[in-house]
Amino acid sequence: MLRVRVATGAILAVVVVAVVVLLPLAWMAAFFHLVLLVAAYEWAKLCGVETRLGFVAYAAVLSAAVALFWLFPAAWMPGLLVAVVFWLVATGVVVSYPTSAPLLRATPVALAGGVVALGGAWLALVVLKAATGSHGDSAGAWHIVWLLAAVALADTGAYFTGHQFGRRKLAPRVSPGKTVEGALGGAAAVLAWSACAAVLFDGPVVGWLLLGVAIVAAAVVGDLFESALKRMRGVKDSGGILPGHGGILDRIDSVLPTAPVFALLIT
Q1: pTM for this structure?
Q2: Distance in angstroms (rounded) separating the CA atoms of residues 263 and 87
Q3: Are the beta carbons of 251 and 38 closer than 8 angstroms?
Q4: Fewer Cβ atoms within 10 A, N terminus or C terminus of the chain?
């Protein structure tokens, strides 16, 4: 299973990096919109939607939000701020679980949260890709690559550190398998990668380390929030489209909060 997981991850990494670096903004936005629609289907299922009409309606709402953001760039920064605020609220939901379970069971609330979470991540990638460096180069594309690598390192570091040294449960009521030691291992990997970013992007080390801390915190919240949704539905994975990983949401749950946090802070 580990070999399957690694192979799937490697293929995904090559495809996503090629899309981010090689495609122009509009084509990259279209690609991630398609990914978003698959994730929206999984999110809707976790919220209790069972009918084809419900899935189509939800996809239409999300696509309309994406289209509006694309047409009105003046709304990009406010949109990122709304997404970040949503994840701050989601932090409270995770911390207070299972007291917050009724909120997650409220289908309209959970579906609205999905539009903000999924749309906010898409918007963040667009904002980053559209950004230019001091010399007019597309520095934003490489910022996206760095961010996705940071999230992968957080996940990998947490997995192996938790497997070897994990003793204390991080959030047993939400996800019994996650440990404090695993989270610290993921954080160490991200902070090392953040120090490298200071060299790669010619910026202050302290600033990148602080960004790394924010990314680690957001990644943990995203992971646990999806775990809470899955626990409400009594499922292990959000889907089965990715061998060794489960669904699209299982692969991008940490990207959903980290992307708007990173985009807002770095811009």
Answers
A1: 0.94
A2: 14
A3: no
A4: N
For residue 192, the tally of other CB atoms under 10 A from its CB is 13
- Pairwise CA distance, residues 221 & 201, whole Å: 27
* pLDDT tens digits, one per residue of 138-166: 678 999 999 999 999 999 999 889 888 98
Residue among 140, 139, 147 at smallest CA distance from 212 = 147
Question: Which among 185, 122, 178 is positioned nearest to 153, based on CA atoms?
Answer: 185
According to DSSP, the β-strands at 175-179 and 169-171 are antiparallel
| CA distance readout (Å), 56 to 47, 62, 119, 142 | 14, 10, 16, 34
146 contact partners, CB below 8 Å, separation of at least 6: 193, 197, 200, 201
Taking a C-beta distance cutoff of 8 angstroms, is the pair 235, 249 a contact?
no
Q: How many CB atoms lie within 10 A of CB 155?
A: 20
Q: What gap in Å lies between CA 16 and CA 32, rounded to an integer?
A: 9
Cα distance between residue 166 and residue 76, in whole Å: 40
Q: Which of 40, 38, 47 is nearest to 233 (CA)?
A: 47
- 163 vs 100: CA distance, rounded Å: 29
Q: 170: which 2 tokens?
A: 């991080």
